[in-house]
Amino acid sequence: MVNIVVAGGAGRMGRMLIREVAAAEGVALSAVLVRPGHDWVGRDAGAAMGGADLGVTVTDDAVEAFATAQAVIDFTTPEATVDYAGLAAQARAVHVIGTTGFAPEDLQKLSAAARHAPIVRAGNMSLGVNLLTQLVRQVAAALDEDYDIEVVEAHHNRKVDAPSGTALMLGEAAAAGRGVALHDVSDRGRDGMTGARRRGAIGFSAIRGGDIIGEHDVVFAGPGERVILRHKADDRGIFARGAVKAALWGQTQPPGEYDMIDVLGLR
Ligand SMILES: NC(=O)C1=CN([C@@H]2O[C@H](COP(=O)(O)OP(=O)(O)OC[C@H]3O[C@@H](n4cnc5c(N)ncnc54)[C@H](OP(=O)(O)O)[C@@H]3O)[C@@H](O)[C@H]2O)C=CC1
Ligand SMILES: O=C(O)C1=N[C@H](C(=O)O)C[C@H](O)C1
Q: Is the distance from the beta carbon of residue 80 to the nearest atom of ligand 1 less than 6 Å?
């Protein structure tokens, strides 16, 4: 049995993860970790969510929670995730990171932690999006720069980062297909007199509204035609189930940095 801590348990993804981990086979929900001082601390996790007791008390003590865990599933904030990466590494627990919006210096800290225990990180943990990245790479390799690539994403009005982690994954895949580095061709800030579109650019745009779970289009707009590859998330369970799969997969891996392409065997 793999003991899993859900970090960020009171969040949208955290609540979904508590349900999925509690229901999944081969894993046990060993702790639910929330922001220090959160009003869920000390309560049963199931009752805190308005359901039946799960027999797991919510805590804000990460060191104690990680001490008996084999995996930490973390959908929180970049700041919290960087802190938890150090603690998970000390506990030699697999750290499954769904959090998005990292700065380059955060990613360096995650790489340092991954020298001691496996980290699985992906901006999207669903099977569908990870498969889509492979398709995007293939289409980008097949179509030349006469086809302008645009990544369009839509999310709920509480999302704090843009472009989404998924949009960046899709942009990276398109750039890899074209044999270029995304940071050399990325166009993220159109406003005002932008001038004509730069040939070879990969553009990003973001819609924020309502309760949209997550929608991503990769548009290849060419002369007289458009190819559009699309993913729509209808249920956050797809991300949570991917994260549980990653926690189990990571148990047999040496320390290092991995993603869902590794977990799903899609590379
Ligand atoms: N990779 C993937 O497949 C997916 C990734 N995500 C990403 O996951 C992240 C979370 O998304 P979502 O659940 O919608 O966001 P929420 O804001 O609903 O949840 C984040 C939770 O983390 C909590 N938190 C903040 N700091 C800490 C801390 N130090 N310790 C423990 N908990 C903490 C917040 O608490 P409080 O509000 O009290 O501060 C909040 O409850 C985002 O970065 C999002 O982009 C989302 C879906 C899928
Ligand atoms: O914040 C969200 O909600 C989501 N975040 C991830 C992202 O940034 O791509 C994954 C999913 O789209 C939902």
A: yes
